[in-house]
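To whoever is on call:

I kicked off a structure prediction for a single chain this morning and the downstream step that reads the tokens threw a length-mismatch warning. I double-checked the sequence; it's 417 residues and nothing unusual in it as far as I can see. Pasting both halves so you can look.
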Amino acid sequence: MNNDVDTIALQASRRGRWLPVSEETLAAFRTTLAERAKKRAPGVRLSPPVQDLASLVDSDPVLRMYFTLAIEQALQAGYQLGYTNVDELMVLIDELMTYAPPFDKTELVGCPLNALLDWPMCMPAGFALFRSPELNAKFKAVLRYWCDFLSGPDSRNFLTTDPPTGWFCPEAISYTRMSEFVYDDTKRYWGFASWNDFFTRKFKSGARPVDAPTDNTVVVSACEATPYNIQTNAQLTDRFWMKAQPYSLRDIFTTAHQTLAEKFAGGDVYQAFLSAYNYHRWAAPVSGTVATTYLVDGTYYSDLEAEGLDPGGPNDSQGYISQVATRAVIVIDCDDQRVGSVACVFVGMAEISSCVLGVREGQHVNKGDEIGYFQYGGSTHCLIFEPGVIQSFVPKPPFDFHTPPIKLNRQIATAGR
């Protein structure tokens, strides 16, 4: 690769640290996976959802065309994929259905499916391919199947104290600040029932105190997350597929909830993304009553053409995917009428396994209360405010991969009309 591409890869893949900076490391991961797949016993069947995915692509001439072209375009561009056609890719996807990531602070392959699809998804044919609703429905089933594995006891092979890959080895517990979390090191696997149980581990009481708990004009961070963007005067409809990636509220909330979207037209949006190593539960940014909750099906590996090369997942397409990706929406009517309603939109990036709602409509929550969580996968989120509510934001753009994360329950804005 040339220096320009290396620079793009460096910047993009560092966001959230879900994939290594080095393309050579990713190529080695794919090659090793391919070598392991070659050792499969003859006649071994694909897992049911992977077979369904393969059958869809094989039976749909348009999807087969786009998939074949995307792979060929990536190979012609010089990328080492570990596969040369769709059939070989499906076998590698199947190998990942029993994969749980080992600890590695510099070369973590936290999103292995994304690692496989990294270059086809941002080739010219890939942009159209990964927007297909039929294809995304099959990927959803694949990810649910993988999530079931990650939620089971067989996913704990790296929940050990064995260096260098065990998540409880000295380097790992220092890097992940495990002392801040709830665990029991007297038990096997430190008391975690599965990989997802570890991934969604909880903070110890008092580890993340709530800023100004009784003052709702102080809005706090809903996630342990790094600021990505702030946009004022968000429009009801906008050209979210352009490079600027403006937020199109009707598309974020969906047309079925247009009345809700209209409520926030002209308001402000704060977006931040989560790291592979950090906390993945959501907290209420204000105190109030939960007015609305719903889940939205969407894309998993769709990138934005206007961003060009976006290795390491849809990192540079985070504004765009807020309108098209799988997501959960929670709207809180704040106890302080000067703050109004706050919409929390939790977005699955790449192989997010699921967005789990933890509250119901009509329930009252206090600022800092848990309202849901991401199961395994990359993730970003938006907080959306009504017009004229935000007086100032604490984090100040521009943001880049050097921007530090804001801790859960720390102030991100001052609000009040």
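Update from on-call: the warning came from a stale cache, not from the record. Cleared it. Sanity check on the structure: Residues 1-14 have pLDDT under 50 and may be disordered.
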